[in-house]
Amino acid sequence: MSGIPHFWAVVPAGGAGTRLWPLSRSSSPKFLHDLTGSGRTLLQETVDRLTPLAADRFLVVTGQAHLAAVTAQLPQLAGGAVLAEPSPRDSMAAIGLAAALLERRDPEAVMGSFAADHVISDPERFQVAVTRAVEAARQDWLVTLGIEPTSPSPAFGYIHLGEPLPGLPEVCAVQEFVEKPSVETARDYLASGRFRWNAGMFVVRPTVLLDLLAQWHPEFAAALRQLAGDLDRLPELWGTLPRIALDHAIAEPAAAAGRVAVVPASFPWDDIGDFDSLATLLEQTDPGSAGGLSVLGDEELVRAVASTGLVVPASGRTVAVVGLDDIVVVDTPDALLVTTRAHAQQVKAVVTGLQESGHRDLT
Amino acid sequence: MSGIPHFWAVVPAGGAGTRLWPLSRSSSPKFLHDLTGSGRTLLQETVDRLTPLAADRFLVVTGQAHLAAVTAQLPQLAGGAVLAEPSPRDSMAAIGLAAALLERRDPEAVMGSFAADHVISDPERFQVAVTRAVEAARQDWLVTLGIEPTSPSPAFGYIHLGEPLPGLPEVCAVQEFVEKPSVETARDYLASGRFRWNAGMFVVRPTVLLDLLAQWHPEFAAALRQLAGDLDRLPELWGTLPRIALDHAIAEPAAAAGRVAVVPASFPWDDIGDFDSLATLLEQTDPGSAGGLSVLGDEELVRAVASTGLVVPASGRTVAVVGLDDIVVVDTPDALLVTTRAHAQQVKAVVTGLQESGHRDLT
Hints:
2 copies of one chain form a homodimer.
Chain A: E1 7-13, H1 42-54, E2 58-63, H2 67-73, E3 82-85, H3 90-105, E4 110-113, E5 119-120, H4 123-138, E6 142-147, E7 158-165, E8 168-178, H5 183-192, E9 195-204, H6 206-216, H7 218-229, H8 234-237, H9 246-256, E10 260-265, E11 269-270, H10 275-285, E12 293-295, E13 302-305, E14 309-313, E15 318-322, E16 327-331, E17 335-340, H11 347-356
Parallel strand pairs in A: 1-2, 1-4, 2-3, 6-10, 12-14, 13-15, 14-16
Antiparallel strand pairs in A: 4-9, 5-11, 6-9, 7-8, 7-9, 8-10, 16-17
């Protein structure tokens, strides 16, 4: 199994997943957890899904604090496949450094960057979409995957599709990236059929990525290329790199300059932003639980009477839920959350409150 | 301090408090717990409240399984003040045995029987009512205390007041005891002003109690008097006694025979039948929590966002509650309950379910 020749999978493994507290913690973020009941963590599923395409060509970029856990979860990866950032520096620095390393390592490389904490329940369709994206990337496009929206969600950015590319009828030019819209605007987007969710997935030749960066941030690109030639200087120079998201640094200006393409894709995708999303996801993967109570973990521990929603029994204790609809109960050894699917976004306020009151150890 | 001469306090300490699971367990029932945040358990508060009346004249009747815990919670009581039933045998056997023991011990005794798991937040008014009841009991009445209803509750039996007793204007004859009524009937009761809640409190001369029992259950009365003379035979004979409540065995037929009196009393009383009652009680004792969230335990452990109801953080873990009204969260080391005040009665179904599925250790 060698996958797509010269295709490298870059996996940024970062983000705290604050709205999934107390399951996800800063010390043990979302990507290190099995959130689907598959027996594999989100990080492991991400690598599993990419392995048919990338074989053993992986570069996982994570925080220093998670290096040991990430390495332990991915024993199949070669030494050096996991790169630790000295400190969080946003996505442009992390993905840009991976690009600079790959540019030196394999002049014919095409890289695909895929977050470690997303769920894609149809790997085959995902692989077809990435394969198409690689073809376009070899023609020097910065290629993104555009997820077909299943609802007018105001939680995601959208990609406005342009015309199909000459010779690549399955790939379109990107007219523009639009920030998270109102639900009303999102409804118009869906009705038009010309908008896709931006899942932050990019496929591109490393040199193209760095050259695009050099167009708007020449010093940033130069610093990344210098670092790639001398990784020993990482601790010293990393903190001087700009904190900026790849979308703002490159994708948006490059789209305006007509350099970005999109593969419209229809595989089921979720970034599991909160417990409401998680409940929806579990309902889909276990249709028996739809309209009932989903359990992530040992169902034997849950006693439900006239209740619907989501229970995560992660402390080994018995959890009884009586007479509650759309409830969310997350039971961990040192902290318990009780909320509703409709209030799932407000979990962040609890984490902020704990941090501000000197209980950072719980967050 | 010697209290009312010859007044003996009998405290039946039994009942599982199933609807207060997982706080109350068969291994550690309701009366062994501090449910008011006072720092004293319900059993200790019951004894504290009776001590000004009974001084050291106590007889606590409990199950064999709870003998050690009861004795440990009441170090001030003399040896022999705590009596263990070999097995649960309902209230007539427990209170009748206490009566038979006291009849031998003190011919002038008046006994008052008060359950160990009720809450009375105005001990002075309680003591005034008991003192009146003792006066009537000395005239050979079987005397009960009738609690002024604060709502048309269908959860309690009611006492129908008759005429005041000659020479004891604060005490009335009992016309009849009525079983738990419908809410509509209870409304009529409240409107009439002639009905009181039956809290199962009795004040009576032991000999009067046993003679009344002998009138309808002569063998039962004889067996109790025999046992009192030879407690060594308790293990052998206890299991042969009828299982019957004192109300059915004596109080109801005696009322029909014109032998029962009632002291109408207006002290605040609660039997804390479920978590809804407990929430109401805590709102009353801590007016600051009214309309908000009551916490029974360490408030520092509770993080509430836009929530009302009751949280019992009894495992030491942090409990976060977000966006839930009238929620009930009870967190113990091996089991967690999440319900609402309106569904508090259904907690019993969880306990039954656990018992039926081989998890008796959790109940």
